[in-house]
Write a structure and sequence with these properties.
Layout lengths: L17 H22 L7 H11 L5 H18 L3 H10 L3 H13 L2 H28 L7 H4 L6 H18 L6 H11 L2 H12 L3 H28 L10 H46 L8 E10 L4 E9 L4 H13 L6 E6 L7 H52 L3 E12 L6 E11 L5 H14 L6 E2 L1
Parallel strand pairs: 2-3, 5-6
Antiparallel strand pairs: 1-2, 4-5
Helix pairs in contact: 2-5, 3-4, 3-6, 3-10, 4-9, 5-6, 5-11, 6-10, 8-9, 8-11, 10-11
């Protein structure tokens, strides 16, 4: 009895895929659920304690004033002597984070009073910081700008990222029921709010306003993105909004806070985009400068100085070159590479060559290069003279030896050949060494002692070698 065939009514190609599809769908759902449980932080959020903690950090009087003043002086000293450890210590004791996080929290929960207090106290803190740092740098005997100071004069995209994610870490840690102190301390160090203020004070004290504006610009960027991160986390954690008894007043407060946020956010976003574009320009320009030196254009030329200039409308890369002249056609080709291969469409390439204008610094570089070349040439010439003298001495010796050989052949026909070699003799008792010319002879018959003595005396005078001995 034959078995009946099993008929699969499922559409062709789908009969065996349902269990697998269902299995993978369930696995994806389980993974998504696990991720949600892993990253969820709502259940451990202490809303009242967070608002109270940040609110207490807004109070700026008494001890906080002294701590800020001392911290600013410590940070200024660290920047002045280029000590990273001292700067980190100053950032740990600084109370600047409170008002900045207060701004983000107040906007997030629509608390007008907290926003006003945060802005007022932040302004006061900034003024005290500038006064303290300016006074220090006016009195400090160390007037030169160290690398730690110069590093706080221009913001980069990395400063934006550090401020944003540092601020996010700060508000997440503050909102926990058990606040991890190490996280708060790390945020204070990473976001680096104090050094820019100290550098701004240095700019005021030394009347270098580009330092002041650059450093204050960096402080503003850091502060804004810390506040922005705080605001976003507060919204994500769904902090309860502040309730007002008067609905009209509540609506007005929300409107004011919204307008304030837009006013602050628009220039900040523009500034952030500017920072991103400048960072991208610098990275691409450095890449271009590094690679173009290895190209055939610089095979017989040397780059001695490069300069990058960036503004919103036009960027410039200036390269100062010595050596073989780079032709206009080669410069045009490099310009097209700059735009097409490195993505710098609005960038102008300027090549300054030896017959063109050079700045003082570039002239110094050229003079140093030429001075080194002259020293190398002088050393080479001295070596040539030394070798020529040795060669002349060797040729003269060969001439004398040839003449002596003729004279020996006449006086001592039995001598077939001779050699005079400088040998180093070592005294076995005193261990002293002495270089003595030694005569070796090859003769068809042995010379008598008298003949050997006469030959030795004559050669000592003839070769001007009084120490000559016969071996």
């Amino acid at each position: 009895m034959s078995e009946e065939p099993i008929i699969d009514n499922a559409p062709e190609g789908q009969g065996n895929k349902r269990p697998a599809k269902s299995k993978w769908t369930q696995w994806a759902r389980n993974l998504l659920a696990w991720l949600k449980r892993t990253v969820r932080i709502h259940q451990d959020t202490d809303y009242e304690s967070t608002v109270s903690s940040i609110g207490s950090a807004l109070v700026f009087k008494g001890v906080n004033v002294w701590i800020l003043f001392f911290a600013i002086i410590v940070a200024s000293v660290g920047l002045n002597v280029n000590s990273t450890a001292v700067i980190i210590g100053a950032m740990l004791i600084s109370p600047l984070m409170g008002p900045i996080m207060g701004i983000g929290l107040s906007v997030g929960i629509s608390d007008k009073e907290m926003l006003r207090t945060s802005l007022r106290n932040l302004l006061v803190m900034v003024m005290i910081s500038l006064v303290a740092s300016t006074a220090y740098f006016l009195l400090s005997p160390l007037g030169d700008a160290q690398s730690e100071l110069l590093a706080r004069t221009r913001p980069t995209i990395f400063d934006v990222l550090i401020a944003f994610f540092g601020g996010a870490a700060g508000i997440v840690a503050t909102s926990r029921k058990s606040q991890p102190f190490t996280v708060i301390s790390g945020v204070a160090i990473a976001t680096a709010l104090m050094p820019p203020l100290c550098t701004a004070g240095y700019g005021l004290a030394t009347a270098q306003f580009r330092y002041f504006f650059g450093a204050f610009y960096l402080f503003f960027i850091n502060s804004f993105f810390i506040a922005l991160a705080t605001f976003l986390i507060v919204k994500y954690l769904q902090f309860p909004q502040k309730k007002y008894l008067d609905p009209v007043r509540a609506k007005r407060v929300k409107r004011y806070i919204t307008i304030f946020s837009i006013i602050v956010m628009i220039p900040s976003v523009i500034i952030a985009l500017h920072v991103v574009q400048e960072s991208s320009f610098n990275a691409s320009a450095n890449h271009f400068i590094s690679e173009i030196q290895e190209s055939p254009y610089f095979e017989h030329s040397q780059l001695i100085h490069s300069k990058k200039e960036y503004n919103f409308k036009q960027q410039t890369i200036t390269m100062s070159v010595v050596g073989k002249e780079i032709t206009p056609e080669e410069i045009n080709h490099m310009q097209s590479l700059l735009r097409n291969q490195y993505g710098l469409e609005n960038t102008t390439l300027v090549i300054r060559q030896a017959d063109q204008f050079y700045s003082v610094n570039e002239n110094e570089v050229i003079e140093n290069i030429l001075e080194k070349k002259e020293l190398q040439i002088e050393a080479a010439q001295q070596r040539i003279l030394q070798l020529e003298a040795e060669l002349a001495k060797f040729n003269a010796h060969n001439q004398v030896t040839a003449q002596v050989a003729k004279e020996i052949a006449v006086q001592y026909p039995s001598i077939k050949s001779f050699a005079v070699v400088n040998l180093v003799y070592t005294n076995t008792k005193t261990l002293k060494t002495d270089t003595i010319p030694t005569l070796f002879i090859e003769s068809t018959q042995k010379l008598s002692p008298e003949q050997e003595q006469n030959l030795l005396k004559w050669l000592r005078v003839r070769l001007e070698q009084p120490k000559l001995r016969l071996q």
